[in-house]
Amino acid sequence: MSGVKLFIFALTSELSALAALFTPQPLLQQGLVFLLAHALASGLFSLLLTGVFPKRFQPQKKGLLALFFCFAFFVPLFGALAIMITLVYFKTFLYVGERDEFFSVPLPPFMQEASGMAAGMGEGGAWSRLRTVALPKEERLKALMAVGAGRGMNSSRFLQLATGDSDDEIRLLAFNLCERHEQKINQAITTALEGLKTAETPLERAVFYRSLAFSYWELIYNALSQDELRAFFIEQSLKYARQAQEIEDDDPSLSILLGKIHLMRHEHDQAGDAIREALKNGAATSQVIPYLAELAFLKRDFSTVKSILAQDTTLRLKPGIGPVAHFWRASNVR
Prior knowledge:
Layout: H1 3-21, H2 27-51, H3 61-74, H4 78-93, H5 123-130, H6 137-149, H7 153-162, H8 168-198, H9 202-221, H10 227-247, H11 252-264, H12 268-280, H13 285-298, H14 302-309, H15 321-330
Helix pairs in contact: 1-2, 2-3, 2-4, 3-4, 5-6, 6-7, 6-8, 7-8, 8-9, 9-10, 10-11, 11-12, 11-13, 12-13, 13-14
């Protein structure tokens, strides 16, 4: 049924419901006719309004339908009037026809370093080649292998995106690389857990605790964990990192790991303590400054962000953090 017909039926039903209130007939019959006609009108208006919403709201369609029905039903006449005004607004002012393709889009300041295709096979260059369907398959396979050889959240996300490629060979290779990476980390976890059973000295246990903490963090950092397992892996990484630190309390890498975990858990005070502990235990300044700056930014202490990033002048030369450090050094924040 077309939208115009639905609108006509909805409007007719609402007017019939109103007319029933002024028709001389028994009160019970009058109320029953009103409720039926008004309920039908509310349902039709709800269908109309839900139908004009963008496709991204499709998963919430049932909830939106119920919301609009309740609004139209429990606010007689004015609810239907509001829905009609909303429909006119959507149809008149928010109509989206054929989208004009952009000729060029200015890059944000922090993206300038990735403005061109990499000459080598870094993440940016590899992904640019991988998603260019017009390139020969051999070039795209080389790019996929380059992405698979990398580590980190970006590489894992690129591989996961490649699993939806239209080419069967590329899709299967992406699945294989994802599975191989996850199996490698899971094997390290299994080995460490077995080693804990036979460890006799605190130092031996510390080695296995450390391995478990970093292995669980690898699953999180490389985006290899499902949402329902992510919280469990964070807890496991935190537990083993603390156990390892109880034995080796001067290990800066463990302190940095604890800082990352607390930062991910939005425990900013504990994260700051762990990062400063890492610095005290000999961690490189360039390793801890980005985290201290992030913590200051989360507290909206912008002058501290600028002063922290100014402590290491080499940060502006490093990828990722470089444009951020340059921005804050050039800012007028005091």
